[in-house]
């Protein structure tokens, strides 16, 4: 995305020197502030060079197309081509109740706020407190820091009360001496409740140290960019493991509580779930005097067995809404969460009398079986489980046969919806039918802080939650002061922000950047200016990340400069400011990220820098997941191979190579699979991913002799190729021949290995699925799937546009009659955010991208001619013109072309259309 050099034959360009910025954007008031730095000046001089090394052409690697794949490198579809297969801006007054508290935080600021629109408005740094963090960084004790922080906050204006609810600040939790074992209500194997034997024995509760959870997988994200999913389970690593171990060591070991008193309070609630009894239990368990807004309502709904949808702001206390019911309900509570780090954090925060467990795919088999054993023993009251694990047949059967599932909690429930900012295909597979039929779950609770109306619809219909059971409070806390400024020089402006009130006085700050490289540069710059900072992103070694988080959590460093990889699951209560160095990708992401601040209820400060160049770059990136019909068709033809389709057949698709062949990210492939499983017609059933290729070696008995005795060996010999003495075969194919599952075949191989007959190695991680009903009309199916994916892509672009619009509005359009002043735009940003969540269209600004360029077609032509050895689709060509890497066209190969990212400022769709026209001409000419 970043690179741009002249190095291939395509240096002969029809284009004059590149425009330095999107020209149409310049027409707008705000756009006068584009970075004046010429990107061209950074480029190497144009030298005739070799064309980029030949890419792995997606088409060349395909098997002959049994369906309607064209011979052209792109597809022009006509219905007759398809051969069916045989039968196989609102006013503040209308805002929701509770939107603004009577004492809104922004109205309490007494000091003038730094104004980035008018530098004359910037207050000089206060001499005495010019940068308290600078003096003793890493040396102050926590007490000193806290007292200084309190003084500083007081200097800024006032100590802000906890505005999240109507509650007074929470008193410290006082836990009494234990009168029983940790989990005073246990399940036996029948799922029935039984009391502890040592009830009332006054035995001191200690939390047993738990084993590490995850193996070190230390992967770094390709491309230097941390998308939200980069920190999800598939990429969890040693950091998570370390945190898990640390948490299990230090979370609960020293706490004590009076189990008998709590047990009595629980019994009282069971008999009569009145407000008084619940508040009494709240006090005993947490030490809090009252529930926050929405908590009591949600808890009562869950206790009454009704499915509930809960929308509360970040840091408002959603976790308590399942923790307390978990204590009261007889069975186990399952919490499905998208992020292992989040699960670990939530497990750590469980009160000591609630025994927690964790299950995720990155655990070792030993760790997972230990957790399962504890569940079977009834020793686990709340189980945090990743969706991948949750959907595993084995898990479902263990849970349903050994436990009573009282409650299933879907945390970050927006991940269920493809219209959310953070869609997870595995979440989409969580459905009410599954939860009820397979688990017999008594109750369901879905929770999120960020859901638009369409996301909400999707969640509630997937989980069968009626709208009467929606508990929705405002999606914003009002103790966050929101400011925004257009930046010409982000680095300089950032430093200025740090030197100005109120930021100069804030002790704990997170800066969010889009790219990993930015985090390193910014943190170095801050350190050079005596502000202690560390960078954090998924490319940093796990140990180092863990260390950075610890330094930050213990206030030994003032600033963490991070990508989105940091923060989810972070409940550091005293983060006083969040600065967005780059525009977030959506208002949902913005709300989540600023929600890391002010969790102690005090006023926090959130500043957003925006500039048009970053917006244009991000807008390009929104097209990196999209696919077109040509690719979907290829995908379908491999998933349902014409020669091998039979219902019930188990098949596999190797992830890495498929991703390159279809030029689709693995996540997109999984999304398609999910859609084929859960759409109107169920075409397939997804099975757990497996290593699909087996390399096997015989040791004791000759293969033919062994085959006479063992049917698995006979089946293997039939299907395998001999490669340098090794028998290489596809595991699902052999399993199909034998009429067993791949899992059963693996068990047989394992036994043969134990007997010394064979050794083997499994590789090539693959999606595994059972064909339920092969589609009869591939063409209309691929058209439907493509339409859906394009809608999802458009929705992502609209989200970014809405984010940009909000920032643009604040800086350029806001008339400051509603309480905004200087760069402080809390009222208007809050309104924009709430409008957005309520479904009010914010996308008026999206049309401002350039719609064309006189040189575009000519440049595409030159590009195609100079890379005639490769085959392109219109989308692949447009991606290169936008500088977007994809599995089949990686940046390592293609960023060397002169055209890489050259037309980023032109609407992607326009570039794609132009590419389509040129490809038609190009291929046509070639054929003459
Ligand atoms: N009734 C209450 N009174 C005082 N403090 C509370 C209350 N309920 C929860 N809290 C505290 O609020 C903090 C945030 O809670 P929690 O982590 O559950 O928030 P959340 O809504 O899940 O936030 P996020 O969406 O950001 O994960 C915790 O430290 C918790 O102890």
TrEMBL record:
- Which InterPro entries does this one have? DEAD/DEAH_box_helicase_dom (IPR011545), DNA/RNA_helicase_DEAH_CS (IPR002464), DNA_helicase_ATP-dep_RecQ (IPR004589), Helicase_ATP-bd (IPR014001), Helicase_C-like (IPR001650), P-loop_NTPase (IPR027417)
In this chain the Helicase ATP-binding domain maps to: 299-469
CDD domains listed in its UniProt record? DEXHc_RecQ4-like (cd18018), SF2_C_RecQ (cd18794)
Polar residues bias located where? 55-64
> What UniProt keywords apply to this chain's record, in alphabetical order?
ATP-binding, DNA-binding, Helicase, Hydrolase, Isomerase, Nucleotide-binding, Nucleus
Cellular compartments per GO CC = chromosome; cytoplasm; nucleus
Q: Where is the composition biased (Low complexity)?
A: 23-38
* Oxidoreductase recorded as keyword: no
Biased amino acid composition, Basic and acidic residues: 136-147
Protein's UniProt keywords contain Isomerase: yes
Q: What is its EC number?
A: 5.6.2.4
An example GO biological process term is: double-strand break repair via homologous recombination
Q: Main EC class of this protein?
A: isomerase
Q: Kindly list the GO molecular function terms attached to this UniProt entry.
A: 3'-5' DNA helicase activity; ATP binding; DNA binding; four-way junction helicase activity; hydrolase activity
What the entry lists under Gene3D superfamilies is as follows: P-loop containing nucleotide triphosphate hydrolases
Q: Segment Disordered: which positions? A: 1-73, 124-148
The places in or outside the cell where this protein is found are:
Nucleus
Q: Tell me what reaction this enzyme catalyses.
A: ATP + H2O = ADP + phosphate + H(+); Couples ATP hydrolysis with the unwinding of duplex DNA by translocating in the 3'-5' direction
Q: Which residues form the Helicase C-terminal domain?
A: 490-647
Family assignment?
Answer: Belongs to the helicase family. RecQ subfamily.
Q: What is this protein called?
A: DNA 3'-5' helicase
């Amino acid at each position: 995305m970043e690179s741009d050099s002249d190095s291939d034959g395509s240096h002969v360009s029809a284009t004059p020197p590149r425009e330095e910025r999107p020209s149409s954007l310049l027409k707008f008031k705000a756009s006068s502030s584009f970075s004046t730095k010429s990107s061209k000046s950074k480029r190497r001089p144009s030298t005739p060079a070799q064309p980029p090394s030949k890419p792995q052409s997606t088409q060349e690697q395909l098997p002959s197309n049994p369906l309607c794949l064209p011979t052209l490198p792109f597809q022009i579809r006509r219905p007759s081509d398809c051969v069916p297969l045989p039968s196989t801006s609102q006013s503040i007054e209308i805002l929701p109740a509770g939107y603004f508290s009577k004492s809104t935080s922004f109205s309490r600021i007494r000091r003038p706020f730094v104004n980035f629109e008018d530098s004359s408005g910037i207050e000089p740094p206060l001499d005495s407190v010019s940068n308290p963090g600078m003096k003793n960084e890493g040396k102050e004790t926590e007490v000193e820091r806290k007292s200084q922080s309190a003084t500083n906050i007081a200097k800024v204006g006032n100590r802000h009360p906890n505005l999240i609810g109507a509650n007074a600040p929470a008193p410290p939790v006082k836990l009494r001496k234990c009168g029983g074992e940790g989990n005073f209500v246990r399940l036996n194997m029948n799922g029935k409740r039984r009391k502890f034997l040592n009830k009332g024995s006054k035995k001191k509760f200690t939390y047993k140290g738990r084993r590490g959870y995850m193996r070190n997988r230390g992967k770094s994200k390709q491309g230097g960019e941390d998308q939200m999913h980069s920190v999800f389970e598939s990429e969890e690593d040693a950091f998570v493991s370390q945190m898990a171990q640390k948490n299990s060591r230090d979370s609960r070991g020293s706490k004590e509580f009076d189990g008998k008193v709590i047990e009595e309070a629980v019994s009282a609630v069971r008999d009569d779930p009145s407000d008084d009894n619940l508040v009494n239990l709240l006090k005993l368990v947490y030490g809090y005097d009252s529930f926050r807004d929405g908590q009591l309502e949600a808890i009562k709904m869950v206790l009454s067995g009704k499915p509930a949808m809960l929308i509360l702001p970040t840091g408002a206390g959603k976790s308590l809404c399942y923790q307390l019911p978990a204590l009261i309900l007889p069975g186990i509570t399952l919490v499905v969460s998208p992020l292992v780090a989040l699960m670990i954090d939530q497990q750590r925060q469980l009160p000591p009398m609630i025994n927690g467990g964790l299950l995720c795919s990155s655990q070792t088999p030993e760790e997972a079986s230990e957790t399962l054993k504890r569940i079977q023993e009834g020793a686990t009251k709340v189980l945090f489980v990743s969706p991948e694990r949750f959907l595993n047949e084995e898990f479902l059967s263990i849970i349903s046969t050994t436990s009573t599932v009282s409650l299933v909690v879907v945390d970050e429930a927006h991940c269920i919806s493809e219209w959310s900012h953070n869609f997870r295909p595995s979440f989409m597979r969580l459905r009410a039918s599954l939860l009820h039929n397979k688990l017999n779950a008594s109750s369901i609770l879905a929770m999120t802080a960020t859901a638009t109306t369409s996301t909400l619809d999707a969640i509630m219909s997937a989980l069968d939650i009626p709208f009467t059971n929606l508990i929705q409070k405002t999606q914003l806390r009002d103790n966050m002061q929101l400011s925004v400024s257009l930046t010409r020089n982000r680095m300089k402006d950032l430093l200025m922000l740090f030197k100005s009130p109120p930021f100069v006085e804030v002790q704990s700050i997170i800066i969010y950047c889009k790219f990993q490289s930015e985090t390193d540069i910014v943190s170095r710059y801050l350190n050079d200016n005596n502000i202690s900072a560390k960078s954090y992103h998924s490319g940093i070694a796990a140990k180092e990340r863990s260390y950075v988080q610890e330094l930050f959590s213990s206030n030994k460093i003032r600033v963490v400069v991070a990508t989105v990889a940091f923060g989810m699951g972070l409940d550091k209560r005293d983060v006083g400011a969040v600065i967005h160095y780059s525009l977030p990708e959506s208002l949902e992401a913005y709300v989540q990220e600023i929600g890391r601040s002010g969790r102690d209820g005090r006023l926090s400060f959130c500043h957003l820098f925006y500039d048009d160049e970053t917006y244009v770059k991000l807008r390009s990136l929104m097209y990196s997941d999209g696919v077109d019909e040509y690719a979907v068709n290829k995908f379908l033809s491999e998933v349902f191979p014409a020669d091998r389709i039979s219902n019930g057949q188990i098949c596999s698709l190797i992830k890495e190579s498929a991703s390159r062949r279809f030029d689709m990210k693995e996540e997109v492939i999984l999304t398609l699979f999910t859609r084929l499983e859960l759409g109107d017609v169920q075409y397939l059933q997804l099975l757990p991913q497996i290593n699909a290729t087996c390399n096997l070696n015989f040791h004791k008995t000759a293969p033919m002799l062994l085959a006479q005795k063992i049917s698995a060996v006979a089946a293997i010999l039939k299907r395998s190729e001999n490669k340098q003495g090794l028998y290489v075969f596809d595991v699902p194919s052999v399993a199909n021949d034998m009429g067993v599952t791949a899992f059963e075949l693996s068990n047989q191989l394992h036994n043969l290995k134990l007997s010394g007959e064979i050794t083997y190695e499994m590789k090539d991680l693959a999606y595994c699925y059972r064909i339920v009903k092969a589609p009869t009309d591939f063409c209309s199916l691929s058209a439907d799937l493509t339409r859906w994916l394009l809608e999802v892509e458009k929705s992502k672009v609209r989200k970014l546009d809405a984010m940009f619009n909000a920032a643009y509005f604040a800086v350029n359009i806001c008339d400051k009659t509603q309480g905004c002043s200087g760069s402080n735009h809390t009222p208007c940003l809050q309104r924009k955010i709430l409008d957005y969540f309520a479904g009010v269209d914010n996308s008026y600004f999206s049309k401002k991208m350039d719609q064309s360029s006189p040189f575009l077609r000519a440049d595409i032509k030159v590009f195609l001619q100079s890379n005639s050895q490769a085959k392109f689709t219109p989308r692949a060509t447009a991606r290169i013109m936008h500088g977007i890497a994809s599995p089949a066209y990686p940046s390592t190969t293609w960023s060397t072309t002169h055209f890489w990212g050259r037309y980023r400022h032109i609407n992607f769709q326009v570039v794609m259309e132009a590419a389509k026209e040129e490809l038609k001409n190009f291929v046509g000419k070639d054929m003459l």
